[in-house]
Amino acid sequence: MSLPVMPLSRFIALSLPSASASRQAKGNRRGLAGWLALSVAILTAPFVFSHPSVAAESPQVKTGHSIASLITASDTVDAHSRLHIALRLQLQNGWHTYWQNPGDAGDPPAITIKADGALQGSTQTIQWPVPQRIPDSSLMSYAYTGDVILPLELPLQSADQKSDKVNITAHANWLVCEHVCVPEEADLALTLSKGTPAPSAQAPLFEQTLQHMAVSSPYTATFSSNGILQLTGKDLSPTSVSDAWFMPEQQGKIAEAAAQKPIIRNGSVTLHLKPTADFSALPSLSGIVVLKDKADTERALQVKANPGTVTDTSENTRTASAGFMRQILFAFIGGLILNLMPCVFPILAMKALAVTRLGHAARQEQILSAACYAGGVIGSFTLLGATMMAARLTGSAAGWGFQFQSPLFVGMICWLLFSMALNLLGVFSFSAVSINSAPHTHHSVWNDILTGVLAVVVASPCTAPFMGVAIAGALSGPPIAGLTVFAALGFGLALPYLLIAIFPSCARMLPRPGAWMIYLRQFLAFPLLASCVWLLWVATLEGGASIVALLGSGMVLLGVAAWVYGLAQTHQNTLSDRKRFALHGLALLALLGALSLLPVLRQQAAAPSSTQGMTLPEGVEAFSTTRLQTLHDSGKGVFVDMTAAWCITCLVNERVALDVPEVREAFKTQNVTLLRGDWTTHDAAITAFLRQHGRDGVPFYLFIPANGAPITLPQVLTPGLVIKTISSTR
């Protein structure tokens, strides 16, 4: 500031006429110099403090819970090097934002950066630092807290030769969470000069972030289809590594919150991940493995594991073998209990009559009948499991009972059960159970096989205790192991029938056939008709009210076909060939008329339904992951009920153990909210939630207390069990 003042003062001094005048003007000169200095400072201040060469950080944008800005590692830039640029988020204490894989909940930040002027370019690719793991109840998040630097590299090329300025603009959006989650966004801009790059004042922030980036792994990484990830290398040992964990780049491939059980040996580190259903189809597994030594120093390695054979230790082999045997045991017990589940009640009509007739038949016929029935059951369960596995490989989110999510399938089963009911009532004779009252009619092998097939078809909406864990394990493991688990499930369902055939003493204890069988057979038709009413209701929820007219019309036509065919059977000895042929033709026409409705039913099933799903009783809320997180963050306990209209076990549990006054009062007293998820039609959010908790079907019940670990309840509930569970953490 003194440089322009001094020449001016000298000029004024030389122009004055005398020394006395000089002394007299001395004070005036000092005042004039001060005013000149102040004027120059005011005029030059805007140029000094806004010069683009020091603008390596954009103006800060304050959002609700963050301060966002754009920073660069250099004050100047040229076209011969990439510009290191970053989104800087200064978060409030207690708040966090997310990694590229947010974990079980959340959303990663996104930014679009563009440059124009002397140089141009664009980028959206964030170079992600290593995140923190933030567990919350049964969920796991991968996130950042505090002062967050998310770096990018901006490639540039020459553009406007007349300009020496580079204008950079960016739009960023991110999610910040504490007890609640808030989406935020900002538009950012800065200007740099074209020139040889030189470090900016923000360069140290880039250097610090570089220290938190994962480095390429020097170790060989392999993973198996059942979720074992292994690193092998000479310097890996219990001395150099005390703990390890894996964070996958892709969301939803493993249960993020599950313990990974690291096993550290000389030359290897093995992590036991809990895979989701489509894990085995991954071509590779990428992510970050963090190795911690005994001094608590962490080393983050970027790995890309290839599928292969994991060199497992004997301990791992025993663990895997024990887990597989437990799945088989659970499947067998589940299949055994499935005989008592409500969804199998319609089949008891056929089984009761067949078993009674079998009790006093020839032993060879007993064994053959039981073997054929067991073959039908086991084969159908195995085929159903293979179908689900194939659907998973093609990217479909198929779960247990998935076929009942189709109104077309529900309608066809409704027609089948209606036809069986007409058969049991004696309208016609053409099924696994004949209307002929004679106990020793010729036995049909195909009748027993088809009975077993039908038992599996009708049983598939149900999940007995232990089945959920077994099915989830079967779908996430190797195909051969999975099919073995499904076969064990079928063996459990078929076992009671097999025992009667194998042990003659059991068969002789059954009552002798007689006239009572006719009345029992007719009486057992009514559970089948009740099942038809239930299936009509399910189809209405899935396909809309108009689907009832189609299914009802089909049932009328099937009834006509059965009645006419029954007339031909009853009077076959008195009717002429022409009349018998005419009756058979009329029955066939009625049957074809019913079948002609299938394309219309299929079209109706494919159309979006306007129904609102299952009606929720008072005090019950619809499930969503957002609502679950909000309730849990507010300090409330949450009881999650995953159900479906076609799941009879679910409906029984709701009527008996959940939607009853004493349990509702307990929910209110314990400050617990009941969230009900309707899986009647396919719901991707519910499917993802089930897989996160190791399940592939409904019912599924999970209690998440306000404080403490989640509690998974069995598939069969009682009011006392529910009340005890929600009261145990108070």
TrEMBL record:
<dbReference type="InterPro" id="IPR028250">
    <property type="entry name" value="DsbDN"/>
</dbReference>
<dbReference type="GO" id="GO:0015035">
    <property type="term" value="F:protein-disulfide reductase activity"/>
</dbReference>
<dbReference type="InterPro" id="IPR013766">
    <property type="entry name" value="Thioredoxin_domain"/>
</dbReference>
<dbReference type="Pfam" id="PF13899">
    <property type="entry name" value="Thioredoxin_7"/>
</dbReference>
<keyword id="KW-0201">Cytochrome c-type biogenesis</keyword>
<protein>
    <submittedName>
        <fullName>Cytochrome C biogenesis protein</fullName>
    </submittedName>
</protein>
<keyword id="KW-0472">Membrane</keyword>
<keyword id="KW-1133">Transmembrane helix</keyword>
<feature type="domain" description="Thioredoxin">
    <location>
        <begin position="601"/>
        <end position="730"/>
    </location>
</feature>
<dbReference type="GO" id="GO:0005886">
    <property type="term" value="C:plasma membrane"/>
</dbReference>
<dbReference type="InterPro" id="IPR003834">
    <property type="entry name" value="Cyt_c_assmbl_TM_dom"/>
</dbReference>
<feature type="transmembrane region" description="Helical">
    <location>
        <begin position="547"/>
        <end position="568"/>
    </location>
</feature>
<feature type="transmembrane region" description="Helical">
    <location>
        <begin position="580"/>
        <end position="601"/>
    </location>
</feature>
<dbReference type="Pfam" id="PF02683">
    <property type="entry name" value="DsbD_TM"/>
</dbReference>
<feature type="transmembrane region" description="Helical">
    <location>
        <begin position="409"/>
        <end position="433"/>
    </location>
</feature>
<dbReference type="GO" id="GO:0045454">
    <property type="term" value="P:cell redox homeostasis"/>
</dbReference>
<keyword id="KW-0812">Transmembrane</keyword>
<feature type="transmembrane region" description="Helical">
    <location>
        <begin position="328"/>
        <end position="349"/>
    </location>
</feature>
<dbReference type="Pfam" id="PF11412">
    <property type="entry name" value="DsbD_N"/>
</dbReference>
<feature type="transmembrane region" description="Helical">
    <location>
        <begin position="370"/>
        <end position="389"/>
    </location>
</feature>
<keyword id="KW-1003">Cell membrane</keyword>
<dbReference type="GO" id="GO:0017004">
    <property type="term" value="P:cytochrome complex assembly"/>
</dbReference>
<dbReference type="InterPro" id="IPR035671">
    <property type="entry name" value="DsbD_gamma"/>
</dbReference>
<feature type="transmembrane region" description="Helical">
    <location>
        <begin position="445"/>
        <end position="474"/>
    </location>
</feature>
<feature type="transmembrane region" description="Helical">
    <location>
        <begin position="523"/>
        <end position="541"/>
    </location>
</feature>
<feature type="transmembrane region" description="Helical">
    <location>
        <begin position="480"/>
        <end position="503"/>
    </location>
</feature>
<dbReference type="InterPro" id="IPR036249">
    <property type="entry name" value="Thioredoxin-like_sf"/>
</dbReference>
